[in-house]
Amino acid sequence: RGPLAPRLLSTFAPQLLRRSPALPALPRRRPAPATSMKATQMETPWNPVKVLESRSKTPALHYLVLDAGVTGEKGSLADSYRVPGQYVQVRKGEDTKPMFLAVACAPNIQGVFEFYIKKGPNVEWITELAEGDVVEMSPVAGKGYNMSKAETLAFPAIPDDVKPTNVLLICNGSGIAPLRAAIESPLNGVAPRKRESVTLYYGVASPEELACPERFKLWEDDGVKVVPVFSQEGEGRKGYVQDALKEDGVKEPKKTVALLCGLKDMTVEVKSYLMEQGVPEDRILFNF
Questions:
Q1: What DSSP assignment string belongs to 184-242?
Q2: pLDDT of 27-68, one tens digit each?
Q3: What single DSSP character describes residue 101?
């Protein structure tokens, strides 16, 4: 047994140490041709959308509802509208000047977009739309209201004496659109039930110019105090929203956040007044 082991090792060792023959090189795989991915709605400059409803809402405003598609896909219009105050452009076709419109409804997965549109000489085509018609909508744009400034919960904790528990909503005319969205949005909205107070100052010429009086009761049930202000006629507060705001005053300016939308002169005057009262400038929010 002893002499055999070395002999076997010397016999087979060269074969064990001999290199195996090289394997033939495999042909290189060519990269698969790139598949053409369908562009998302947010990547498409103009998306065809269907009219669900189109009617006169008040003597000065037209009400338009568009169907952008029931989808929650990333990049869809429905998924991309997330913050009250965001807007889109709408046109009838290439030969029509686009309109910039703030979305009036809360973000929703149904892909329904509502608008209150001021009537005028350049928007007759809007008033002529009917259910089933198709128009073109741009991707959702704008950052909307910076609702992080209205947060009451944060880390580190916000001291109680400066926590924004009071909300002022101030608008006139079609400026009610993004504020309606802010009131009704369960996410990124003003969350009236979690505040000490939420007050809406809504200025129009007369009661018949109110865009959505049918929603006031719902808002009030949620804790929103609605203050219509009429500049021409009607029972209730008279004058302009900035006048009504000054009459009421700002009781706790350090604990107040304000959302504004409307005519420039109004918003400039209101912002100046709020800052004079001590409302922090970064808590006076605009949707643009």
A1: H-SSSS--GGGSSEEEEEEEESSGGG-S-GGGHHHHHHTTEEEEEEESSS-SSEES-HH
A2: 555 554 444 456 788 888 999 999 999 999 999 999 999 998
A3: E
